[in-house]
Design a protein that fits this description.
By secondary structure, this protein is α/β, with parallel strands linked by helices. Helices cover about 55% and strands about 10% of the residues. The strands form six sheets. It has a four-stranded mixed sheet with strand order 1-4-6-5, sandwiched between helices. β7 and β8 form a beta hairpin. α27 crosses α30 and α32 packs antiparallel against α33. It is globular, with a radius of gyration of 27 Å.
């Protein structure tokens, strides 16, 4: 009993003195990360470590059939062991006498590990550690680790004011903070905790490392301040913020607010590994506190605004209100000695925000469900397969693009992985990964090029387009197309891609037949001709992307030389060869999505008319300036393109309202569009509903553009006031 008392005293002393944070490398973190990479976990296969990634692949590729690998893959499939879960276990492991052992309390592990026999797993891990000579690999790279750690100390830690945290929070941290670089993690950052018997609890931030031939390293001075520094500031905040919500008093004060925050955008939060209410709330407070840190520690106004807006674009739309609240907290510390004392005000601010958002959504969703349902007709449109779409889909999957690695549970994808696995180190892959980092070639950008490619005498060529009317995604603008096509042709030849494509023709045709029979008859692009008051100006085709993703679609437009303009969305494969397995209502939802995507040819011709371009261009530019991630994600390089896409998305929702969809279905679609970054969608949908109700006054969408401008200006002015209040 006496010894336990002394240990507790020593722990308290250690916490009160809180040693200076130093960046570290961890053998067990590297072990679990490299194990995850070898097992094919896409989040550990970003392959952004330069020569270190090449060394890792060369050393561990021979062990992809190790007994642990298939077992570990089954843990991912059965229990979701992925993303931060490997890191959670890694910090509770240590190497002692050449053996891996558990040292942390099991209770602090990510709860996904509770389903796993840890003694058995650690025994298997020890076998992998021995068989792969992991310690030898780790020792051989000590000079590399030390060099990178020194860069971190020089270029990142100089911005780190550790004393600020205790002053801001009014308390000492409830745990010891430790910082580890994850050299296999690429752009991902993970948090984890452990508590060794008789020692204080430790909170770990495992920060990803990346480097690129053109962009340089994340730790180069410019990149460090933009990427690494905010991550460090953010993660250290968790040591102070997370324990506050655990108290009964604060939990009672917050009530259902954390749950309501999560429900604001469950999809985008879960994609960021924030599936629980308390996590979303803590992340919110931590992010707002990071903004305050930057304001008080010499960051420029532009840097602060960029950081704030980046959080809003990640789904934390309430950030201006929370930052404003924390600025009030810092101005009244005599009234609120600690951040915990300020919890009632945080709850009040967030409740007001949530109530206002509910009213904003309710205004749109209080509509009378229409009994009108377009009759199913035999569509003239038939979905088709395209070899170049499959080629770009496979290339993106092989390069580790996470949006092209969401699908696993079907035979075709298993065939893809088996056939192309030997080519993961092909020169085209490394070059293509560089394009993602440098030009953000991702999501729909690969498909935008794919529909402009063709196979001519066994060679991949780019088709000619009408001068001045190319719809190629602007992210391809800085790319040397001849160089890329040269590497793509080499990949096409070396992988025997044509042979793979031909072998799967019967699969493609069976899937397309089912899709065309069940889905395409419910596609109604003619609705938009009537809605916009003018006919569409181009042809329409649907392309099925079998290797693109697990659901969704990528919109593409092309205007080949001597041919009419074409809308040709690439629809991701859902398993259409087995239509009996498609959930009820899903085929209709997919048809509605395609119908909506086909309105762009009508819509774009409206926006691009001179008088409307002048009216809407400024609106689109303001939207783009407030939401720059939309430019990176979707390739919007001008305001008219963004407004075209926004109007199309809003019109699709009006189509659903007028064609028998329920409030729940419309609400889900509205939420999906807002999750994609179109946070102004409620206002725009309301405007288009007004247009639909007054067609005697507004014959075409062109006539209604001044009203759209008025509505959007009002929305933008309101948003600017929110930002100004937080930042000025």
């Amino acid at each position: 009993m006496k010894n336990q008392f002394l240990l507790a005293i020593f722990a308290l002393i250690a916490l009160s003195l809180q040693a200076k944070v130093e960046v570290e490398v961890s053998e067990t973190v590297e072990l679990m990360s490299i194990l995850s990479r070898t097992a094919g976990f896409e989040e550990y296969n970003m392959d952004m470590g330069g020569q270190y990634t090449k060394d890792t692949e060369a050393w561990f590729a021979p062990f992809k059939e190790h007994p642990l690998i298939s077992y570990y893959q089954s843990l991912r499939e059965n229990y979701g062991i992925a993303y931060n879960a490997p890191a959670s276990l890694a910090v509770s492991l240590e190497v002692e006498g050449g053996k891996i052992k558990m040292v942390g309390k099991k209770e602090l592990l990510d709860d996904r590990w509770f389903n796993v026999d840890l003694n058995d797993f650690v025994a298997r891990l020890n076998q992998f550690y021995t068989d792969t000579r992991f310690h030898e690999f780790f020792q051989q790279h000590q000079a590399f680790y030390n060099n990178v750690l020194q860069q971190y100390q020089t270029n990142v830690m100089k911005y780190f004011n550790q004393d600020w945290y205790s002053r801001f929070n009014g308390t000492e941290p409830g745990e010891i903070f430790r910082l580890i670089l994850g050299f296999t993690n690429g752009g991902s950052n993970y948090g984890a905790s452990r508590q060794v018997q008789g020692q204080p609890k430790e909170s770990f931030s495992i920060c990803g490392y990346w480097t690129h031939p053109q962009m340089g390293s994340v730790l180069d001075p410019k990149n460090a301040k933009q990427h690494a520094v905010p991550t460090l500031i953010h993660e250290f905040n968790h040591s102070f913020v997370n324990p506050l919500q655990e108290t009964e008093k604060n939990a009672a004060i917050l009530g259902d607010i954390p749950q309501r925050l999560l429900e604001q955008d469950f999809s985008i939060m879960s994609k960021q590994a924030y599936p629980e209410p308390k996590t979303v709330f803590n992340e919110s407070v931590v992010r707002a506190a990071t903004i305050i840190y930057m304001m008080e520690n010499g960051f420029t106004a532009d840097e602060v605004e960029t950081e704030l807006m980046s959080h809003m674009m990640r789904g934390f739309k309430w950030m201006p209100e929370l930052v404003t609240a924390l600025r009030d907290y810092t101005s009244h510390r005599n009234k609120y000695p600690t951040l915990s004392d300020f919890y009632p005000q945080i709850a009040k601010v967030l409740k007001n925000y949530l109530d206002a958002e509910d009213k904003r959504m309710d205004k749109i969703l209080k509509f009378k469900q229409s009994s009108n349902k377009p009759s199913a007709t035999t569509s003239r449109l038939k979905a088709e397969a395209m070899e170049t779409v499959e080629l770009m889909g496979v290339l993106s999957r092989l390069a580790g693009y996470e949006e092209y690695n969401m699908m696993k549970d079907n035979q075709y994808i298993q065939d893809v992985d088996k056939w192309f696995e030997p080519f993961k180190q092909h020169p085209a892959i490394e070059y293509y990964q560089g394009l993602r980092q440098q030009c953000y070639i991702a999501y729909d950008a690969p498909m935008s090029l794919a529909v402009r490619l063709a196979v001519d005498n066994g060679k991949i060529v780019k088709l000619q387009e009408e001068a001045g009317d190319t719809g190629l995604d602007s992210r391809w603008d800085p790319v040397n197309m001849n160089e890329f096509l040269g590497l793509l042709n080499q990949f096409y030849t070396d992988t025997r891609f044509r042979e793979f494509y031909q072998q799967h023709q019967s699969f493609y045709q069976d899937a397309l037949k089912a899709f065309n029979n069940v889905v395409m008859p419910s596609v109604h692009p003619e609705w938009f001709d009537d809605f916009y008051g003018k006919p569409s100006s181009g042809l329409k085709k649907v392309v099925m992307g079998f290797a693109t993703s697990d659901g969704g679609a990528y919109g593409t437009v092309r205007h080949l030389k001597g041919q009419p303009r074409e809308d040709c969305p690439v629809i991701c494969y859902y398993g259409f060869d087995k239509m009996a397995e498609i959930p009820e209502g899903m085929s209709e939802a997919i048809a509605n999505m395609i119908t909506g995507m086909f309105n762009s040819s009508v819509d774009q011709s409206s926006v691009n008319e001179d008088k409307n371009l002048a009216l809407l261009g400024e609106i689109g530019t303001r939207l783009l300036n407030n939401n720059p991630m939309l430019g990176y994600n979707y390739g919007y390089n001008d305001g008219s393109t963004l407004m075209n896409a926004s109007l199309g998305a809003a019109a699709k929702i009006v189509f659903m309202m007028e064609n028998g969809k329920t409030t729940q279905q419309v609400g889900q679609e509205l939420a999906n569009e807002m999750s994609s970054g179109y946070t102004w969608m409620p206002e725009l949908v309301a405007a288009l509903r007004g247009y639909a109700s007054h067609r005697n006054k507004y014959k075409t969408i062109n006539d209604f553009c001044p009203q759209i401008v008025k509505v959007m200006n009002k929305h933008l002015d309101t948003e600017q006031k929110r930002l100004d209040k937080a930042l000025k």
